Amino acid sequence: MMGGPEGSEAAMNRSGSMDPVAGWNALDSVVLRNLRVVDPAGESRGTSDLRVRHGILEAMASELPAVEGASIDFGGAVVMPGLFDMHVHFREPGDEDSETIASGALAAARGGFTEVACMPNSPVRIDGRSVIELIHARARDACGTRIHPVGAMTRNLDGKELTEMAELKQAGAVAVSDDGHPVESSAVMRRGMEYARMCGLPVLSHSEERSLRGQGVMHEGYWSTVLGLRGIPAACEEIGVARDLALCELTGAKLHLCHLSTRGSVALLQRAKERGLPVTAEVTPHHLTLDHSHLRTYDSSFKMNPPLRTEEDVAALRAAVKIGLIDTIASDHAPHAAVRKDGELDLAPFGAIGLETSFGVSYRALVEEEGMRLDDLVERMAVAPRRILGLPGGRLEPGKPADFAILDLAWQWTVDPTAFASLSRNCPFSGWTLKGKILLTVAGGTVTHAAVAPPAEGARVPGGRG
Question: pLDDT-derived band of residue 399, with 50, 70 and 90 as boundaries?
Fold first, then answer.
């Protein structure tokens, strides 16, 4: 089996390559052998070989002949479409100490993601064409992860004046949102949803009644009382969800509910879908695995917005993901520099990083603990986000640019934020043991992450199976 010391960075570099990614990209032709195909939206199943030439997934079949170049035997590891995270925060432009486009793109690649959508609440708001063009320029200089900006619904996220959404879409925005700063005025939210519908842009809603949140720092309940911390009631989110669903019905706009955290929100979502509203929703890995009791150590890594809720809420969220009521899993990757995050809990900003742990934590919670099929998890993390945003991809398709991740489910690894590509370390899963090591990520024909050395003819992954 793969894993353990033989899968370490030291073992990976025995070939003499100090940079596995550079070595892979130097290859114009390679056959990746003995892979278990997990492709929910495609037609391929079982064990297969993949032949990649000049960045194109040329063929998929058993026992492919190597026309030229090298091959590598992955010993039954999983190959799946490149994952897509539709809710990340890259702090550039404006807070490059916490995260840059380059570091965020590499963190995504290490997590198996080939595409991400970055939210507009960077210090310099994504509310005009010039900011979108800057993000695209920075992305071109990064590792190759494709980055799709989400435009602001209102200028400076102040909830008052709508942005020029048509111009944002023309510049490359895939959706609009005031994430982190929910639109308080229902009239402004209505006009924003109407404009977004006219432009063909989904609305990604941070649903929250901000006056009810007040100065709260955690879920309002038993543990907030015990710890003497100001609470945020579940109703804070549920009132916002109910309002936004009513406006969705009024305007006909495509509404996506971000980071749901309560069983009450799940019930509202279910009724909305039963009525046929154009609504989708996401949940984060941390809301699927952690609850408000984790704040008992006053560790700011567990301070989120929406906050970690109760065990009953966690169970309801898991059940909703399993049946597809909640459509997708998104990390809500929210990096913060240690100088701000590691202080007093009341003053620390909300949020945690999650790109490099998203798949492993979700696999543990849903597949290992809840019995969800791996195919369904990949559907939630690769297919559904692209469908929601109206983007192509999410399947292994010969003749198209190679876009996939190779995953070793037998490889156990321990979460160590100090080894992450992200510039920030605010991770609530530090020290966890997870299954599923991303061995290789290929985005649009470019190798963006390699945890194995580039292959020679007939090579096997170090410590490989069989």
Answer: very high
Residue 12, pLDDT > 90, answer: no
At a CB cut-off of 8 Å and minimum separation 6, what does 387 contact?
394
> Please, what is the end-to-end C-alpha distance for the chain in angstroms?
7
Q: Which residues are catalytic, by number? A: 332
Domain count, the chain: 1
For residue 430, the 8-state DSSP code is: T
Answer yes or no: is 418 within a domain: no
| Res 45: pLDDT | 77
- What Cα–Cα distance (Å) separates residue 302 from each residue in 209, 285, 287, 366? 21, 12, 10, 20
Those residues whose C-beta lies under 8 Å from the C-beta of residue 44, and which sit 6 or more positions away, are 37, 60, 396
Query: What is the extent of the structural domain holding 332?
Result: 83-389
Residue with tokens 């073992």: 11
Whole-angstrom distance, CA of residue 107 vs CA of residue 233: 33
pLDDT at 25 over 80: no
Does some domain include residue 441? Answer: no
275 three-class SS: coil
CB-based contact 56:401 (threshold 8 Å): yes
Residue 117, domain member (yes or no): yes
Question: What CATH number has the domain bearing residue 191?
Answer: 3.20.20.140
**Residue 233 within any structural domain of the chain:** yes
The pLDDT tens digits for 174-197 are 999 999 999 999 999 999 999 999
10 Å Cβ neighbour count for 274? Answer: 8
399: left (phi over 0), alpha (psi -120 to 50) or beta: left
Q: Percent of the chain scored above 70 by pLDDT?
A: 92
161 burial class (0-12, 13-18, 19+ CB within 10 angstroms)? exposed
